[in-house]
Structures are given as C-alpha cells and as structure tokens.
Amino acid sequence: MSKSSLQIFTEETSAAWGPLTSELVGGCCARIETLLKAQPTEPWLASLQRELPEQSELYRDPAHGFLLLAHAEERGRFRPPHDHGRGWVIYGVQQGEMEIRTYARVVESDGQTRLVLREAYLVQPGEVRVYLPGDIHDTRCTKGPVLYYRFTDRDLRKEESQGHAMTRYVECDGGWRVSP
After folding, report:
1. What local confidence, expressed as pLDDT, does residue 159 receive?
2. Percent of the chain having pLDDT more than 90?
3. CA nearest neighbour of 146 among 128, 125, 126, 129
4. Distance (Å, rounded) from C-alpha 156 to C-alpha 91?
5. How many C-beta neighbours within 10 Å does residue 153 have?
6. Distance of alpha carbon 125 from alpha carbon 93, whole angstroms
7. Domain-wise residue ranges, the chain
8. CATH 2.60.120.10 for the 5-178 domain, yes or no
9. How far is Cα 146 from Cα 103, in angstroms, rounded to an integer?
10. Burial environment of residue 146 by CB neighbours within 10 A (0 to 12, 13 to 18, 19 or more)
C-alpha cells in the first residue's frame, strides 16, 4: 500500500529534524509545498475539504514536538498582529486566499512599543510563507473559505503555559501596541 502525502511529509520532516537552520526551514517549506499538491481524493484531505474545521491537528511529532495543523476560515476573518514567541511557523494555503502583513517593532523614546507596517501580500493556493522567532505578522482571509496549514516547530499553547508567551498586539489610537 502506498503512503499518503501526509505520511510522507511527517516521516521526511521527522527524519530531517534538527536545530533551526536555513536548510531545515527550506526543507520544511519544500515538503509543505508538496503537501499542498496532494490529490483531493486522499482521505485526510478530502475530509478537511468537506468539514473545513476551524482547527485540526494533522500531526504532532512525538520525538521532536513539531506540529502540523489545518485551519479553515471564512472570508474576512482577521487575526491581529502577533509573533510566535520562541517558535517559528510556516503557513501554506491549500484553498482560498490570505492577506498577510508583516511589521517591524519600534520602541519610542517614551518606551512605548508600536508597529510599523513592513509589507502586505496575498498568499494563494500552493504558496508558503515562513515566520521566524520574533517576526510579527497578521492574517486576513480575503477569499474564502481559506484552508491553510500551519506548521510550528513547537506546541505554542504549551509554550504559553510555561511562561513563553507570544506577543500579541491591539489597535490603539490608529496604530498597533503591545497587548496588556
């Protein structure tokens, strides 16, 4: 029996796992791009496309701790600016379209932190984007429902419970500030 594209992804990613390097990130991106080309008849993908779950854990590596999640969102869904704490993430769009904007964090003379928009781009089916530790971004579903994969090098909820929180931002006086 042949392996599914999801099985191939998880096995190859686990075998190649190591410290954060350009090679590791590049390899993960290439494998997610391959996963995005999976045949819609594969049972795991057919189920995702039929159910469009808000969040579904596709794989959790028992040895290395990385996760592959699937998310479905309706047009207009917005996730305010945030980073991923000590973690890094790769987003890959299966269907629909997302706008992602990136920001630089600026500390003003009074010590207040604000965000400056760096760039905005559309991520379409088959495309991936990487965000390394400290990178700040937001997401908005522009053509939906969007179905995308979110690959993280660690369990971000577990990180937060251990005191390694993500930084989230809120809109304040026309700009973005660190969430209290």
Report:
1. 66
2. 76
3. 125
4. 15
5. 23
6. 5
7. 5-178
8. yes
9. 23
10. buried
